[in-house]
Q: What sequence folds into this?
């Protein structure tokens, strides 16, 4: 079981490394969107600090969305998805591996970049740490939930827009608790409660999402 | 081993075929023929369990394939229209990662050997996007060199191949049948496969299809 998950992750990471432009595009999107806000809103430190958690989290959601349509589309187009569906292990297990690989490529870089970008918003060190922590805990849920949407819109014309309409509403709880954790730190309350709820969302999202995703993929392959 | 009873296929509003019955045992090959759009690919995908049948049942070793699930898939090798080749990876990486995903152990030497057999020597480390259509097909077919699963389902395996490669693939299928394997394939090219028992199935116009045993090598 672990072997096949590792095989999927290894393959997807290798493919991502051969096609770095995709990763870099999503990262630059994140950097630019976040950096535009201080320029547009003005240099008042108080206002920026209040805006920071929401802006960083919304930008992270959108950057994750950018890479979702290709999660299964490439495999679908070249016939690899059929082979994965016919592999002698549950398709959900393979999907789980793909979700992990997607997070490593699309989610983890955001976690690493966020504290640097947070400096533009005059966030204190503890808030920056909580920001990175909340993204670390929350972004796997984005990949997990996003996989369901990516599978449901597979092969649909104009699937990208439909995917955002399907998935963004489902991201709302993650956004609320993720940004809420940073807000709570800024206002001196602990972030513990928010982070715990965020962790629960991620556990649910990552461990239950592969089954509906696998079912949607099988329908797409019919 | 593979038994199909009363299989029916409906695509949209159209009934492509119905009442298909056949039985295939070890060492036998089924040669699926019919015009474009007669449902050959649909039938193959049903045999793999990718497309659910509109009616009828497919049995493998006496049990419905839907029930067997992973057990059946562990004995199935499917090669579709698409090559399932990743353009960014080299042929070698492609077949090694495909084998790993299918839970088979394929060491690098065996993989290189398979690629040499299909005539991709010297191209092992070239990204597949630089290969021609025929070479990509060869890379996909190199899976068959060391494939020991019992049931091969091949959709137009000879497309885009040159004469030498077609003969090679026919030889691989023949060797597979001699080992007691089963093969179901579609093709529009008459190719001689050294098979002991060859059956032909014609898919017609929505009527019950006609299964013929042919002892002649076609």
A:
């Amino acid at each position: 079981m672990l072997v096949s998950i590792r095989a999927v992750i290894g393959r997807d990471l290798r493919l991502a490394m051969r096609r770095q432009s995709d990763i870099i595009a999503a990262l630059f999107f994140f950097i630019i969107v976040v950096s535009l806000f201080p320029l547009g809103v003005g240099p008042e430190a108080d206002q920026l600090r209040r805006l920071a958690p929401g802006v960083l989290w919304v930008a992270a959601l959108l950057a994750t969305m950018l890479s979702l349509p290709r999660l299964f589309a490439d495999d679908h187009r070249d016939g690899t998805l059929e082979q994965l569906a016919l592999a002698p292990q549950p398709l959900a297990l393979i999907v789980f591996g793909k979700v992990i690989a997607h997070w490593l490529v699309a989610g983890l870089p955001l976690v690493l970049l966020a504290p640097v970008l947070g400096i533009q918003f005059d966030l204190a060190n503890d808030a920056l740490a909580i920001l990175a922590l909340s993204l670390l805990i929350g972004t796997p849920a984005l990949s997990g939930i996003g996989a369901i949407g990516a599978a449901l819109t597979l092969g649909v014309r104009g699937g990208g827009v439909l995917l955002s309409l399907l998935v963004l509403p489902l991201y709302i709880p993650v956004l609320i608790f993720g940004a809420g954790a940073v807000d709570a730190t800024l206002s001196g309350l602990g972030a513990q409660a928010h982070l715990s709820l965020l962790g629960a969302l991620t556990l649910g999202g990552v461990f239950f999402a592969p089954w509906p995703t696998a079912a949607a993929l099988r329908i797409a392959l019919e | 081993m593979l038994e199909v009873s009363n299989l029916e296929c409906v695509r949209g509003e159209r009934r492509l075929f119905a009442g298909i019955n056949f039985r295939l045992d070890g060492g036998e090959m089924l040669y699926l023929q019919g015009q474009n759009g007669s449902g050959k690919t649909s039938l193959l995908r049903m045999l793999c369990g990718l497309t659910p049948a509109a009616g009828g049942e497919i049995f493998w070793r006496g049990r419905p394939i839907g029930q067997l699930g992973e057990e059946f898939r562990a004995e199935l090798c499917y090669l579709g229209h698409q090559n399932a080749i990743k353009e960014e990876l080299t042929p070698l990486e492609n077949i090694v990662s495909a084998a790993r995903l299918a839970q088979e152990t394929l060491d690098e030497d065996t993989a290189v050997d398979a690629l040499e057999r299909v005539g991709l020597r010297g191209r092992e480390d070239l990204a597949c996007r630089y290969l021609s259509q025929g070479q990509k097909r060869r890379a996909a077919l190199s899976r068959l060199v060391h494939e020991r699963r019992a049931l091969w389902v091949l959709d137009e395996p000879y497309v885009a191949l040159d004469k030498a490669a077609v003969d090679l693939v026919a030889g691989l299928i023949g060797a597979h049948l001699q080992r007691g394997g089963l093969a179901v394939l579609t093709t529009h090219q008459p190719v001689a496969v050294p098979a002991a028992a060859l059956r032909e199935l014609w898919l017609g116009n929505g009527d019950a299809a006609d299964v013929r045993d042919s002892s002649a090598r076609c």
In short: The CA atoms of residues 77 and 147 of chain B lie 8 Å apart. Chain B touches chain A through 29 residues (CB under 8 Å). Chain B has seven helices and ten strands.
